[in-house]
Amino acid sequence: MFGKKILGTILCAAIAFTALTGCAGGGTKKVGISMPTQDLQRWNQDGAYMEEKFKAAGYEVDLKYAGNKADVQLSQVEDMINTGCKVIIIAAVEASSLGQALDKAAKKKIPVIAYDRLLMSNENVSYYATFDNYKVGQIQGEFVRDALQLDSTSGPYNIEFTAGDPGDNNAGVFFQGAMDVLKPYLDSGKLVCVSGQTDFDSVATPKWDSATAQARAESIIGNYSDKNIDAWLCSNDSTAQGVVTALDSSYNSEGRGGQWPIITGQDCDIVSMQNMLAGKQTMSIFKDTRTLAERTVIMVNQILNGETVETNSEYDNKAKKVPSYLCDPVFADINNYKEILIDSGYYSEADLA
Ligand code: BGC
């Protein structure tokens, strides 16, 4: 009787452990995590959260950063394939450069999860875990629309645009989401883009590089010696930081009655949040990297346990419709950042001081 009870308890504990860890009958399983760069705060956080959560769930983790170099990432992923990773998670430096590795992974039946950025033009992408990228851009566009009160004032208002890396599929999607909101106002003349640069190719920023965004912004600001810039739609924080640095050095807001443009961003980087507290960036999209990391661990567990993988959307990568899980982005600004970022434990007040 007593023996049966102990056996039952051990059995229950084993079942619970298996559900949590995804390690049914095969020792420790290794996952490969390939991140694009350590230059941006967010990828360090993504990597660290995933590593922590996978380890807590009993996995061995091979986490690598590619220094923003597509060829380095390719050899790192190939190494993950050759060293026994059971699933590989990739946030690509360049969306279409990993085909060779994806084909090799498929031959070895290693599922690949595109993380945050979609892997393009290859059918061997098993799943995609991300935030709703179109919605990110849409929220940025709506923020500008509402902050400038485009629907209730006559304007016209001046706006400039800075988008992301053409090699990152997300960049075009963010821009499209924002443009779908703002284009009608450009068409009607309520918004005016003095540089005339409103198409993605003209406003893109290779590698999302701050210095590149800054250099382009400096050349644009030259057009505004006698005009206000009312808004600058930036797709993320690294580009917004470049624009803010350019404005800081060559845009005299005091001579314009203290008028500083409305500036959007994404990621809620510490530097951008400090800029926000200083009145130099107006908002940033908050994509809680803890949520995406957790979702990815759930996906991997479901894959390795042979369960149905939970998805809520699909994204076309030009070779297949990739089953996707989209998390929900929100924005943080000066009015709600405490609730969104501090109360949630993402940052402490001291982090932003
Ligand atoms: C991510 C953004 C990030 C950008 C630059 C995008 O793919 O979705 O969160 O700011 O890359 O790293």
| Tally of structural domains | 2
Give me the strand/helix succession.
HEHEHEHEEHEHEHHEHEHEHEEEHH
CATH topological fold name of the largest domain: Rossmann fold
Strand order of the largest sheet: 2-1-3-4-5-12-11
Mind telling me the CATH class of the largest domain?
A: Alpha Beta
* Heterogens: beta-D-glucopyranose
* Structural class computed from helices and strand pairing: alpha/beta
- Structure annotation, total helices: 13
CATH architecture field of the largest domain: 3-Layer(aba) Sandwich
Binned strand content: 15-25%
The average pLDDT value, as a whole number, equals 92
Distance N terminus to C terminus? Answer: 62 Å
Name the CATH superfamily assignment of the largest domain: Response regulator
Overall strand count = 13
Largest sheet: 7 strands, mixed
Indicate the topology:
Layout: H1 2-21, E1 30-35, H2 41-56, E2 60-65, H3 70-82, E3 85-90, H4 99-107, E4 112-115, E5 127-131, H5 133-147, E6 157-162, H6 169-188, E7 191-192, H7 200-203, H8 210-221, E8 231-234, H9 237-250, E9 262-263, H10 270-277, E10 283-286, H11 289-304, E11 313-316, E12 321-327, E13 330-333, H12 337-342, H13 349-352
Helix pairs in contact: 2-11, 3-4, 5-6, 8-9
Bound molecules: beta-D-glucopyranose (BGC).
Characteristic key phrases:
353 residues, alpha/beta, Rossmann fold, seven-stranded mixed beta sheet, disordered N terminus, binds beta-D-glucopyranose
Structure, described:
The protein is α/β, with parallel strands linked by helices. The protein has two domains: 2-125 and 289-328, Response regulator (Rossmann fold); 133-286, Response regulator (Rossmann fold), CATH 3.40.50.2300. It has helices spanning 2-21, 41-56, 70-82, 99-107, 133-147, 169-188, 200-203, 210-221, 237-250, 270-277, 289-304, 337-342, 349-352; strands at 30-35, 60-65, 85-90, 112-115, 127-131, 157-162, 191-192, 231-234, 262-263, 283-286, 313-316, 321-327, 330-333. It has a seven-stranded mixed beta sheet with strand order 2-1-3-4-5-12-11, with helices on both faces. Helix 9 links the parallel strand 8 (231-234) and strand 9. Helix 2 crosses helix 11 (289-304) and helix 8 (210-221) crosses helix 9. 45% of the residues are buried. Residues 1-26 have low confidence and may be disordered. Beta-D-glucopyranose is lined by residues 40, 42, 116-117, 164, 168, 170, 208, 236, 238, 266-267, 287.
